[in-house]
Write the structure tokens for this entry.
Amino acid sequence: MIKDYIINNSHKHASKWVVLSIDIAITIFNFFLAYVVRFGITLDFDKTNFVYQIPVMAVIAAASFLMIGSHKGVIRHTGMRDAYNLFLAVTVLISLSGALMVSSRLSLIPELLNIPVSIICVHYLLNIINLTLSRLVFKYFYHYIKSKLGDSSRVMIYGAGDSGLITLAAITNDSHKSVTVVGFIDDNPQKIGKTINGINVYRSKTITQGYITKHNITEIIVSIPHIDKQRLSEISDNLLKLSVKVKIIPAINDWIDGKLNVSQIKQIQIEDLLDRAPIALENQNIKKELHDKVILITGAAGSIGSEIVRQASFYSYKHLVLVDQAESPLYDLQQELLSKGVNNFTPIVADIRDHQRIETIFERFRPNMVFHAAAYKHVPLMENNPCEAIKINVLGTRKLADLSSEFGVDKFVFVSTDKAVNPTNVMGATKRVAEMYIKCLHRTSKTKFITTRFGNVLGSNGSVIPLFKKQIDKGGPLTVTHKDVTRFFMTIPEASQLVIEAGTMGNGGEIFIFDMGESVKIFDLAKKMIRLSGLNYPNDIDIEITGLRPGEKLYEELLADTENTLPTYHKKIMISKFDDADCPLVMDKIDDLCIMNLFNQDHKIVGKLKEIVPEFISKNSTFESIDIKNEETNNKEQKVLV
């Protein structure tokens, strides 16, 4: 009965008028108690004066509480500010009592209201103690009953500093969930063994599986501000071995109105652990570059394109033109922007291969900048459909670049991939051809053509992390193509910000390479994601090695062997300078490739790709036969020369 009442009414608060009435009643009782303290339990004082003084004291108390507003605080959330308000209210009350005493002695009011100084002083002290104590007793009684009778989860907080105390307050003040904080965990030896708000502080090494089981701990919240990813990864690895959920608080600047909301405490994700240091953008340069510009973004509804849109929307641009052939994702992006108050944009459903359609868009909007993120990027699919890869990644890019040059676009920023370096698959080779085309076009155009090159982005459509999450939800197994396969990773916001930054600093003709940090072993990534889900490998979920897919590399590269890098003012962006190619010959070969592609003869067009990109050597693909044939031809030619 009591349990159901507490659970069903935990979101309700006592009326401020009820609180005011209780405060007045306590004040009257304290007034009586002050007389008892002063004159003893024999009550040897003038009862008539006391009776007349009670209603006057009630009026004074009501006036004092209403003036300060001490009755408006939520009792179960009583804190230092509430105690301070009570102190002010009681001080006002006693000041008014003193004024009554002086007025009575000056015969300005009846003698009956002459309250002895000793009574006023004792009453003052009793009010401070009992009014504050009443709130604290109610607060702790409420949380005690709720934790004992409600469905309470038992948690620990990693971090006994200011952030840990704020997390404790956010948890205990949450009316929607019953949570008991069992203890703090901290590595500071000066805090070990002490208590904070009555809660013990433990050394991290003492928190074992036995302790977790004994105290029925369900989750541990990491509450350490500005923690680096490597340290967070170490802590999470240790905690996940204890069969508990690991949660994390957001960065302080992400708190709502400067306050931590319990809804912001989320289960730790793999994105939180990958060692990506925060980036600092040259916002003034970007602001100047994008100011009053018409910006066209292709692939605007995709992972990178949509984030470029979001980032660009923060600046004082003239107009955003969002082009994508995917109707539903583009609609979702449109609604997202409108909900944020962004109105100065036009979403357009269009295919970049449709020259007349794209030309119409250029004629209408006359863009100053183009961010080209539209592409086919899935390696195995493109290995089986090379004609489509060439249509989008080569032909589509060529048409878009030509129109940009024709309509006098200031800057054209092309989003490439690390798979374009020494490509082993059709997708990477087509992106390399596109890089070569815009590099050559830059020589004869007033438009500044800029290429950005980076690796995988976390959480993008079709990337490994969403795939692993789906497989975990289904109970496994997780599929990894090879135990030693590694990849570079970057967050979507980081990649998009760096694309904009590179577009800002570019003078044309550069290939900008982003610092991707250390490569990540996918097998280790899979094991970590299993642990983050509260499961164990291989007991709960296994990992299946499926073999390298067509065109897949073991290791990705960001820089070709023939290239050199130069630094920029941004430490995460470098410039690649590759050997100058015979551009007229390259352009002719790309024209031939686009014409050959019309006939949908896979081996012939892939052969042409390999002619344009000599370093393109197929791996785990049917097109390896072309490499074998080319090698035999080269060997014969060398023998003839000898």
User: Anything to note?
Assistant: The radius of gyration is 35 Å.
